[in-house]
Amino acid sequence: MSTSPFARLLKTLEARDHISPLEAARVEALPFRLKSYKRNEEIIAEGSRPTESCLLVEGIVGRMNYLQDGSRQVSAVHIPGDFVDLHGFLLKVMDHGINALTPCRVAYVAHPHLRDLVDAEPHLGRMLWLLTAIDAAVGRAWIACMGRRSAARHLAHLLCELYLRMEVVGLAKDGIFEFPVSQVDISDMLGLSPVHTNRVLQEMRQQGLVAWKGRKVEIKDFDALAEFGEFNPLCLNLVQEPR
Amino acid sequence: MSTSPFARLLKTLEARDHISPLEAARVEALPFRLKSYKRNEEIIAEGSRPTESCLLVEGIVGRMNYLQDGSRQVSAVHIPGDFVDLHGFLLKVMDHGINALTPCRVAYVAHPHLRDLVDAEPHLGRMLWLLTAIDAAVGRAWIACMGRRSAARHLAHLLCELYLRMEVVGLAKDGIFEFPVSQVDISDMLGLSPVHTNRVLQEMRQQGLVAWKGRKVEIKDFDALAEFGEFNPLCLNLVQEPR
DNA sequence: CGCTCGTTTGAAGCTTATCAAAGTCAGTGG
DNA sequence: CCACTGACTTTGATAAGCTTCAAACGAGCG
To answer: Which of A6, A88, B12, B70 has its CA 20 to 30 A from that of A82?
Structure first.
């Protein structure tokens, strides 16, 4: 079992295209520094200009959009293996924050090293570009959920998405994955009030669509949940193809 | 006045970083084929595997997510100069459709030519990557609007975003731009019912935040509208920086 | 044991959806 | 030139989904 901070990133890449041993070695050779965060700690601040991109090694993080009335919206969720702030070296200034939703471990890679990597290995460059494109595709699926689906279907969709992503990096199996975030955090992902989120969740538990007790989410019948949430796995691009 | 289909794309790029004459020439030299579409015509179908990426030359297009109940959600709006389906050569299969919201002209560029371009000109490659990253950033802003803002603020935000983007490519000036889409289309962008969209629009007209009659949107006081919609121009990355 | 954080419950109110129909306007054919 | 057509906007009435406020409950922890 590899303990490299890049192990899960490589799994994420390999789920979309073959990665040669040389390419994998190039990734593994990236210099990095590790850092840990407590739950609810800010990892990258809105308005900052990062000089490193952060790769999530352990834990769950969210992209946080803060509003003037004090409320907030999570605009993306990231899991281990996600290059959370990969595009930071293109976008320069953060228009949102990155927060630890659970205790986290993060590997920082300086932008110049990323730049060198994509220059030296064009295929890896395209694969990293692909990762940002997939993030965007997931975002569009979220928009469809927020605009046109009921709260329950939206939640179902989110759980299906997370399950498949977790499975790719070895963090989900047999319909079960750890997702130790509070219902308040969920409500900020769905754009709902905590009270309504709680009620929707109870209803889905009653209907047997999910069992969610404490840290663990259990999906008894993935197909049923996907059907209910109209989840289309296409947006995750989980097919090995030459890219 | 250039009539090249790439003229507005170059403006879009130059708003974010300096583009050398050589780079511009490389873009202008891309082989393409032009095609026109009528309003509401489908440009790229959900589930298809495009072998070309489409650059919007004229008109307005939307990314369409269709739901099982027959409703639909627009997950992104594109204006002339946008490389609508740039990431198509990475994502392979469309998980959503692209529709003409007004009569359109589109330039198709075959993926191999794009591939050659980004291989030969790494800086241009990064700039195209940047464009897809900006699309994603705009998508995240939409998510924040849908989740946590009122319908009126959401609409204000959308109009501010469109105004600035149009301005960059020379299609907006003095607070005015053409946006000849129906209120039904707007409601599919905002995730609202047409009836509610109409009422919100009337209210905003009454308050003097926008004058929208027929094809033309007029923003009398951009700062006031941006303040009301909590619009943060940061997500558009409209700053020339080395990328 | 009491404290703190998170979940759950209840009740009232507001935003937005839905259904149905009328009004408006540009374009078309008689 | 006028009536007709079809697409879009506007209005009204009612209902549903979700929010808000407030408080109780429960589990883990010092």
So the answer is: B12
Smallest Cα distance from A49 to chain B, Å: 12
Q: Tell me the one-letter amino acid at A10.
A: L
pLDDT for A242 beyond 60:
yes
pLDDT at res. B2: 55
Q: Which residues of chain B have pLDDT under 70?
A: 1-2
A191:B143 CB<8 A: yes
Which of A58, A49, A65 lies closest to A79, judged by CA? A58
Relative orientation angle of helices A194-206 and A151-168, to the nearest 10 degrees: 80
Phi/psi-derived region of residue B174, left when phi > 0, alpha when psi is between -120 and 50, beta in every other case: left
B129 and A130 in contact by Cβ < 8 A? no
CA contacts within 13 A on the Cβ side of B134 = 27
Average pLDDT over residues A226-237: 96
- Chain A partners within 8 Å of B235 (Cβ): 95
Task: Tell me the whole-structure pTM to 2 decimals.
Answer: 0.96
CA distances for A76 relative to A40, A60, B57, B97, angstroms: 15, 11, 31, 22
Angle between helix B21-28 and B111-120 (nearest 10): 170
Nearest CA to the C1' of C5 belongs to which residue? A182
Tens-digit pLDDT profile for residues A132-178:
999 999 999 999 999 999 999 999 999 999 999 999 999 999 999 99
Determine the Cα–Cα distance for residues B48 and B98; give it in Å rounded to an integer. 11
What confidence score (pLDDT) does residue A2 get?
A: 54
Chain B neighbors of A65, CB-CB under 8 A: 140-141, 143-144, 148
